[in-house]
From TrEMBL, chain B:
The lineage of its organism: Bacteria, Bacillati, Actinomycetota, Actinomycetes, Propionibacteriales. It comes from Nocardioides immobilis. Keywords: Signal. This is BMP family ABC transporter substrate-binding protein. It comes from the Bacteria. SUPFAM superfamilies: Periplasmic binding protein-like I.
UniProtKB/TrEMBL annotation, chain C:
The chain crosses the membrane at residues 60-82, 89-111, 142-164, 185-206, 212-232, 239-257, 263-283. GO terms for cellular component: plasma membrane. The keyword Membrane applies. Keywords: Cell membrane, Membrane, Transmembrane, Transmembrane helix. It is found in: Cell membrane. This is ABC transporter permease. It comes from the Bacteria. Coiled coil: none annotated. GO terms for molecular function: transmembrane transporter activity. It is a multi-pass membrane protein. InterPro entries: ABC_transp_permease.
Length: 356, 381, 306
């Protein structure tokens, strides 16, 4: 079965690569196929037809221009959120705090809007919101960095905990000081048109994707072509050796984590000013965790992150189709997401680590 | 097999889409409105904020959608559950439109923003919203509809005010939206009409359905000596069971739950959406939506005769006398001068909100933003 | 009843599900594996218990089913990280998504269905004590079982051979290999045991506390449990105290509202997390040195030994 599936892929692969790439491709396609088959069994158990489900997903998610646009809209914060994991990871740091940093990005952007929205010139307003979001995200990650540098607190723990504090900060703000009106559901006032991100051409896609793509390239270049990128990977590989080589490891840790936070902050700003236009209690829900997984799926590499983010966004959009066409709850799509992750995490990596 | 091939192709298309996304023209963007949005639609969509079998608000919506399906056998009825109250709702509605829906019911209070943006983008599609109020100009292809929930809650308040021994009633609610505020006030005023000393203590959970928070809220109210509990939550079983277990009485909401509270069940307000939904669908299919009562903030109550909210069966604790009192009050609510908020109405600070002899309209009650005297709790939070 | 008693009693009943999950996570982390999928184990535990309760009418069979479901999910995590070398954070989050999806797929028929749950059972004599009575002894049997779980886990961890092996797997895994033990088996066992306890926490939430099943009803309690273990520096006793503290913070909001105080719930909600961060900062390197050595390697992205 896998061989047939692999064929179209293989034909497109240049010949010299074929011998090297084929086993890898086979393994990936094989694991993905297993994920789809297991999900099919579950659908059958629920009395839904997998054929209906998959053709429904295929037609309504990939054959409709609007759905494709929606995927691009949804992948934007995931790309940035995943880059926010990838940069610290290069320095050997685990940033589980995307969730909180994205929220703080939205909060920062909203704060800037509420503060200067009336006075700033339109273009300047967006810049102010963007900068404020970056600062907010960077500061939020910076807290974790500072705790690590000053007190030796592990950043995986602190960024995870800071997610909950960020959520409470968001809820506090939208329930009281920033609330649109004391009656009604809690939300901030809607952004004025000048504070909304413009759309690309005649689509529903906000320009955030352009920024995300540019930043993916920038991150790639920064990590692979600059002295800083080299230094943080040395510090990430062996901090002791880096220190002996005269590198300022503390500064490198701080910069890697804060740049990560700033990237997540941008994700929050784009979600706020490009999609939601209001902060609501569910703002940014699960974007950070999904980004974290997207980054792992892409093995922390900037360009593969684009593909991983696309896949996750497509899965999320397919949830609607699953519900409308196959009659199973939309959240069931998480099962397929998880199977893909489990298959990839557990069965495409080299066995070296497991054997260690 | 084809499924797997599609997946591989999907990835390829996906990558291509990334590149061309910038150039994709909005081919599906609707043509300009033809003045008869939704006419002869073959498909109707319903989006719900919670699960369709929540024993509550969303189940009532789902049952209403089934009534539509029964009344219009040729119509395809799409339903989507657990649709959040943010921009995701717009995506789901758009998916329904892509599947052919030209009439969509966005049924949660917080779906209004998304409903209006979908209506704006699709002038040929009617999007009606349940329970909220459009305060700006109402677009040609949109509107809101609701019943006057607070009328049966007033009647239930009579049952609660008679039954309570501690003179303390408890109200678990989600958000201080005008609809909820009117319910709480009407409940208290119904109770006051038979028991002047009665108080209604309120606790908000900040969620339409979070059983953990509901339990904490119910426990706090019971600890305060409340002996009748009611609620404005989408899922209702947690609060009802908490009351029943501690020997307190229950006034239900959304659905008849006397089954899970055989001892303490008094009565409740229960939905029957079928007739309203069916009439909206008929109006839209006939091409008569524009300018109709539904192309507005449509409200229906005892005065107009077809309130989709009806009173649930009475429990063992309600006497014949009380039932008679409730029936008398219901007749009164249907008259010109009848209203849960017939003046004088004082707010928590003792300020007069409705003068002696004043009878507020349904529209007035839709923007209620204060608690009446006798309600314990803070609005500003 | 007084505010204090109300909040303490609410803290104990609301904190119990967190306590079960926290103690389970302690076992797992003591053996060197962090499990962000605890939230997922609680979710499948809640649904498993609820569904089995509905089908059989016996809440104890429900607990058994919830524990099994929670353990099974954790077993997958254990297999992935221990045998397949997957990232602990990524695997845990993946299993959370799996649990969200599975419970949504299979949970729908149980939404709004009445269950025969645990009733309040007042402990004779003890429940009449002032303050302590209502706070500790006017609850359900599954909550009382929680009182036994903490000492039991403590005894097993620190006074038995099994516990020693588990802790060694978390501290000096290579020494186990030398003595012919399978580090892999021990770790997977500990992770699974942790999932069993998290599943029981979910069971308490669904069939003893809220008496309902709803999609995503665990609502972050599993993540709180993971945070709590760090707050408690890997001690089951401090997990117990911490869980009730978190429970009280959650109960304080409605209790104050019912007394007409004006409050912002979210400042209260943030307190336990800010407190944890403050404690970590003050303890500083000492926290990390209190952590199992193998766990430290996980945090520092070093490959596991053994």
């Amino acid at each position: 079965m896998t061989a047939v599936v692999a064929d179209p892929e293989a034909e497109q692969t240049p010949a010299p690569l074929l011998s090297r790439a084929l086993p890898v491709v086979m393994r990936w396609v094989g694991t993905l196929a297993v994920a789809l088959v297991v999900f099919s069994v579950l659908l059958l158990l629920k009395g839904a037809s997998p054929v209906t489900a998959y053709t429904g997903i295929w037609e309504s998610t990939f054959l409709r221009s609007r759905s494709l646009q929606e995927i691009v809209v949804q992948m934007t914060p995931l790309v940035l959120g995943a880059l926010a994991v990838a940069v610290p990871a290069r320095a050997g740091l685990t940033n589980v705090g995307g969730e909180g940093q994205i929220i703080m990005g939205g909060v920062g952007a909203c704060g800037a809007f509420l503060f200067v929205g009336e006075t700033a010139a339109p273009g300047l307003l967006l810049v102010a919101m963007l900068v404020s979001a970056m600062v907010a995200g960077a500061v939020w990650a910076g807290i974790a960095a500072a705790m690590r540098l000053v007190a030796g607190v592990n950043e995986a723990i602190s960024t995870l905990l800071l997610n909950f504090v960020a959520l409470d900060v968001l809820l506090f703000l939208i329930y009281q000081p920033w609330r649109e009106s004391p009656v009604g559901q809690p939300a901030t006032v809607e952004l004025v048109d000048a504070a909304k991100l413009p759309f690309v051409a005649a689509t529903r896609i906000n320009v955030g994707i352009v920024l995300a793509l540019v930043l993916a390239v920038v991150v790639y270049l920064a990590l692979s072509r600059t002295r800083w990128g080299y230094k943080i990977s040395v510090a990430g590989g062996n901090a002791e050796a880096a220190r002996r080589a005269g590198l300022n490891v503390r500064l490198l840790v701080l910069s890697a984590l804060m740049i990560g936070g700033a990237l997540a902050g941008i994700a929050g700003m784009i979600q706020f000013a490009g999609v939601e236009y209001k902060l609501r209690p569910s703002f940014g829900y699960q974007l950070g965790y999904t980004s974290f997984l997207a980054c792992w799926l892409a093995r922390h590499q900037p360009f593969p992150i684009l593909v991983a983010a696309f896949v996750f966004a497509a899965l999320s959009v397919s949830g609607d189709s699953l519900q409308l066409d196959a009659g199973v709850p939309a959240a069931s799509i998480h099962v397929l997401t998880a199977f893909i992750l489990i298959a990839v995490l557990g069965f495409t990596a080299s066995r070296r680590k497991a054997a260690a | 097999m084809s499924v797997h091939q599609s997946t591989v192709r999907a990835l390829a298309v996906a990558c291509a889409a990334l590149v061309v996304a910038g150039c994709t023209s909005a081919t599906e963007a609707g043509s300009s409105g033809d003045g008869e949005p939704g006419k002869d639609t073959t498909t109707v969509g319903f989006i719900m904020v919670g699960p369709k079998d929540d024993f509550g608000y969303n189940q009532a919506v789902y049952e209403g959608s089934q009534a539509v399906e029964a009344a219009f056998p040729d119509l395809e009825v799409l339903t989507a559950e657990n649709v959040p109250e943010d921009d995701t709702a717009a995506t789901t509605m758009q998916q329904m439109i892509d599947e052919g829906a030209e009439l969509i019911f966005a049924t949660s209070y917080g779906h209004l923003d998304a409903a209006l943006s979908v209506a704006e983008e699709n002038p040929d599609v009617v999007v009606v919203q349940q329970g909220n109020t459009i305060t700006d100009d109402i677009p040609e292809n949109s509107g809101t509809y609701f019943g006057t929930v607070y009328e049966p809650m007033y009647l239930a308040g009579i049952a609660a005010g008679t039954a309570t021994e501690s003179d303390k009633l408890g109200y678990v609610y989600a958000f201080p939206i005008p609809q909820t505020i009117a319910n709480i006030n009407a409940f208290e005023r119904g109770a006051q009409s038979v028991n002047p000393d009665v108080e209604t203590i309120t606790v908000s959970t900040s969620s339409w359905c979070d059983p953990g928070k509901q339990q904490a809220a119910a426990e706090s109210l019971l600890d305060e000596g409340v002996d009748v509990l009611t609620q404005h939550q989408d899922c209702t079983s947690t609060v009802i069971q908490a009351a029943e277990k501690s020997g307190a009485m229950t006034v239900g909401y959304h659905a008849d739950a006397s089954e899970i509270a055989p001892e303490g069940w008094l009565t409740g307000a229960v939905w029957d959406w079928g007739p309203v939904y069916t009439d909206i669908v008929q109006t839209v299919v006939d091409g008569d939506f524009v300018g109709s009562a539904y192309n507005d903030n449509f409200r229906v109550g005892y005065k107009t005769g077809t309130n989709p909210f009806v009173l649930a069966p009475y429990g063992p604790g309600v006497s014949e006398e009380t039932i008679t009192a409730i029936e008398t009050a219901q007749e009164w609510l249907g008259t010109e001068e009848g209203s849960p908020f017939a003046g004088p109405v004082l707010d928590q600070d003792g300020e007069v909100r409705v003068e002696e002899g004043g009878v507020p309209t349904y529209a007035d009650n839709d923007v209620m933003d204060y608690f009446v005297q006798g309600v314990i709790g803070n609005l500003a939070q | 009843m007084s505010l204090v008693v109300d909040v303490l009693s609410g803290g104990v009943s609301g904190g119990t599900s967190i306590m079960y999950a926290g103690v389970g996570e302690t076992v797992s982390e003591r053996a060197g594996v962090i499990n962000l999928g605890t939230e997922g184990s609680m979710l499948v535990g809640a649904l498993g218990a609820y569904a089995a309760g509905v089908e059989t009418g016996n809440p104890w069979i429900g607990v058994l089913a919830g524990a099994t479901a929670g353990g099974a999910l954790a077993l997958v995590h254990g297999y992935l990280v221990v045998r397949r070398g997957a990232s602990q954070f990524a695997s845990g989050l993946s299993l959370l998504f799996l649990a969200l999806g599975l419970t949504s797929l299979f949970g729908a028929p149980y939404v709004g269905q009445p269950v025969v749950g645990f009733d309040t059972w007042e402990v004779p004599l003890l429940s009449d004590l002032p303050v302590l009575g209502p706070v500790l002894f006017q609850h359900d049997p599954l909550l009382y079982l929680g009182y036994l779980v903490v000492p039991l886990v403590w005894v097993v961890l620190f006074k038995t051979r099994v516990g020693l092996l588990g802790r060694t797997a978390g501290e000096r895994a290579d020494s186990l290999t030398v003595h012919g033990y399978s580090v892999h088996a021990i770790r997977i066992g500990a992770v699974t045991a942790g999932g069993v306890l998290a599943g029981m926490g979910g069971a308490h939430l669904a069939t003893a506390y809220a008496n309902a099943w709803f999609e995503n009803m665990v609502a972050g309690r599993g993540f709180i449990a993971v945070a709590l273990v760090i707050f408690a520096t890997w001690s089951p006793w401090r997990v117990l105290g911490g869980a009730y503290l978190f429970g009280c913070a959650i109960a304080l909001g409605p209790a104050l509202q019912a007394r007409a105080f004006e409050i912002n719930q979210f400042l209260l909600d943030a307190v336990p997390f800010v407190l944890t961060l403050a404690v970590l900062t003050i303890l500083g390197k000492r926290t990390l040195s209190a952590s199992p050595a193998e766990l430290k390697r996980v945090f520092e992205n070093a490959p596991p030994s053994g």
